[in-house]
Amino acid sequence: MSEVYANRRSRLRDHFNAAGTAAALVTRPANVRYLAAAAPHGAVLLLGGSEDLLVCAVPPDDRPFEGRPDEALRVQVLPARGGDTAVTAADLARSQGADSLAVEEHHLTVARHRAIAAVAPALRLADVGCAVEQLRVVKDEEEISCLRIGAEIADQALGELLESILVGRTERHLALELERRLVDHGADGPAFPTSVATGPNSGRRGHRPTDRRVEEGDFLSVCLGATYRGYRCEIGRTFVIGTSPADWQIQLYDLVFSAQRAGREALAPGAAYRDVDRAARHVLDSAGYAEALPPLTGHGVGLEIDEDPQLSPAAMGKLDACVPVTVEPGVHLPGRGGVRIDDTLVVRPEADGGPELLTITTKELLAL
């Protein structure tokens, strides 16, 4: 695996060297982990002229889910607590003879940027931009394997919950139960705060669980995800509580299901991001729900739950193979209820079977 991380750092080095910069400082935690195999709290990565250094505030922990630093990297721990790893790394770059340093300006605070400039005034500071994020878009098979396992864990946790008695339990209790099951089945933890919305609360986009209790006739909308070895997946499903869904619930669910299927079928290498969004959105727009739709149909996943690409109406760019994305259209009717169906998939060419579905919990409208 050390070769994988060395290759990633080499590709970033080619990028900033081509821009005329001698060294680079990576501070965004997900980017540090992508390049160094681990991102201990507060750690930064210096890609220097003579060697690469992982600069840590404290010695790296040995817990597997936090990752272990690439053995090819030298780890340098600050001599005393309270120091700034980024400032220390900039000073190390200066001592290595670098005359310029590319930094992640989109991640650094103004104060931290000024502190770097103050400790090494001879360094010309440049912006490396989102170069690491762009490298992260296409995943290798090891990364996809981690996402696949995370999806299996999320499916298992959701499936077990659906077999239990739900009526009378609160949204908050169900969310905590799901997160506990994720960990029980081997996840590092939840990929994001679990959402459970019942009845009229399912009509609120981005709803956070409350003490409202599940009642007969409710829509039950659940969105959860598992983190496995740092990689985060996502699944969302909507169910009906009771034995006989109302006609309006069936019609709304069938409509969202059709939109989600259209979005999934549009995933292919070379497909424009906006065209995937359009495929799903058109189904719902045509039914008169334009005002009730979320701003995007899906997004990339990986070391963060919301990565590039963004599948939205204004998004620029085209999909590549081996890019994991969500497809998650929904219709939210305030005060009444809503439906969201959310899967994590990996873009694959048609010759390889088309998009690979990672989250496999049934999308049939179940009455629980």
Automatic annotation (TrEMBL):
Keyword Protease found: yes
Pfam families named in the record: Creatinase_N, Peptidase_M24
Listed InterPro entries: Creatin/AminoP/Spt16_N, Creatinase/aminopeptidase-like, Creatinase_N, Pept_M24, Peptidase_M24B
Keyword Cell membrane in annotation: no
SUPFAM superfamilies: Creatinase/aminopeptidase, Creatinase/prolidase N-terminal domain
Domain Peptidase M24 intervals: 146-348
Keywords: Aminopeptidase, Hydrolase, Protease
GO molecular function, one term: aminopeptidase activity
Region (Disordered): 189-211
Domain Creatinase N-terminal: 8-138
PANTHER family the record matches: AMINOPEPTIDASE, CYTOPLASMIC PEPTIDASE PEPQ-RELATED
Protein name: Xaa-Pro aminopeptidase
Taxonomy of the source species: Bacteria, Bacillati, Actinomycetota, Actinomycetes, Kitasatosporales
